[in-house]
Amino acid sequence: MEVDKGKGEAEETRKVAEADRDTVTLKSSDGKLFEVSKEAAARLSTVLAGMIAGGSIDDNGTDLKQIGSEALENVVDYCNKHANSIPSAALISSSISFNTAPFKEPEEWERKFVDRLSHDALFDLVEAANFLGMERLLDVTCHKISEMMKGKSPDQIREVFNIKNDYTKEELEEIRQELAWAFYDD
Amino acid sequence: MTARRHCSSWADLHPELLGLVLQRLPSPADRARLRAVCKAWRREILPVPFPWLCLLDGTFLTVPEGDVHHFPSLLGDEDDALCHGSVGSWLFLERTNDRSMSLVNLFSGDTITLPDADTIRHHDNDDDHDARPMMYKPPVPLSSSSSPDSLLFAVLMTVGGFESVISICNSAAAAAFRVPRSEVRICDIAFVGGKLYALSPKKLFVVDVDSSRRAGGPKVPSMECIDDDVDNPGDMYKTIGGESYRCAYWSYLVESRGKLLHVRRLQYYYMDRSRTYMDRSRTFSFEVFEADLTVRSCVQWRRVHSLGGQALFVGPSSKSLLASECGARPDCIYFMADYDWARCYRKDPLCDCGVFNMRDGTITPLLPGTMVMRPNSDDDDDDDEDEDEEFYLERVRPGWFFPC
How many other β-carbons are positioned within 10 Å of the β-carbon of residue A19? Predict the structure, then answer.
């Protein structure tokens, strides 16, 4: 355990001081602590925004039992990077016009951010983003996953994502016939 | 990474997240391949995507998410193409510079060329309606040939508001048939059991199409009336809550599970001092009649209150889909403002859209956030801009697009 202070007067003083802090401390399921910009956390995560507004942030580390340390590190890293990046025009314009693309394209740095992740880390990150209500991070991760699937055969997708083929031979043959056009199309 | 740290796997990806990924893969082929990956994904991904709303500018709206898909490259760099609707996942396009017509597959980019607009219409220079706008019903495929060049289509056109032309065309030639003016106009056509049917306000016709492949291209079709007494109550006038409405029917012919359906849409138009406000029409209800075509000389219509688990998507190119396969509600009719003479949809194609449930007669919104208004609800947008409400024909209308 990295931090586990007993309660006392010193603690009280620290708490008062920390009320004005511009970061919040998050604690992963395996007990690791991470600091993240309060402003970015509130802006990017509806769940964290609710916790900050509702005062349920624990200065000793708000427990996020569903999120492992590797995923939480990525979440925090993303929030802090976001806080430091200057939002581009694409991100600011939120109004839907009939001429916009269906989804906002990831920024260059966001692309790089998810490109460097292992598949396991990407999986954990998309689930963490979902759990924390981080719409923008969901956009970015789901975009990346869809890119990894586009135009690939079922075999290739299974290989990329390490998914077991749980169909019987007969079922597979049936599927192949039903979807012949999709397998041999391009 | 050689070993996984925990037991969760991509096959167990939260269904909601799989859905988000899927929204970014609009191609039906990608979707079909994902279904084949593992049993869990097959359970989560429906075999048939829910139809999209095809708006007027090459933009598509998914239902019920309301996501926008835009394919600007299809309409050309200078927006020189008009989209007259879609057939399955093919868009029916007219290039404005040379009036060439084509079907373009949204996903594969494949193109089927059709004769130009004048040839399809069999237009001659002495035509009275030369300058009048023209309305198209997207081509109805009359054969299921694998080679695009030998495909035969029927195109219904409305010229100048009243005259109908049915044209049979392949990629090289067209043969047009001008429906006699005495038959008023053809509301819709449908291809059922190898035959092409056409409906006017009072009559049902079978159109004789010689689809045998031979030199010389398609033959001019002929039309035979097989029912001259289709039930049509005509216009009615009603007063609801002190306000006057004109009530009229709008008809669709739809093929559903091998049957021919006449789908009648009852609309109320707000009237003020004998003036009808087309852009303030509201759909009130639907009635569906199934044709018994076993005795050709004596067609019997039977009112039905169920679609056998199908859902109907009515519009310029109507289609019946098995509700459970595409995530629609069974025995429901999905509709939008597609009437060809009201220009209301120029302002808002969603101004009169909804889902009519045949089981209980209720209408619910098509998209969350849109309102369903029946004529008895308060209608207080009197300060609508009051531009000239002259009878107006719009060449393009919104419709359903079936990405499969």
Answer: 9
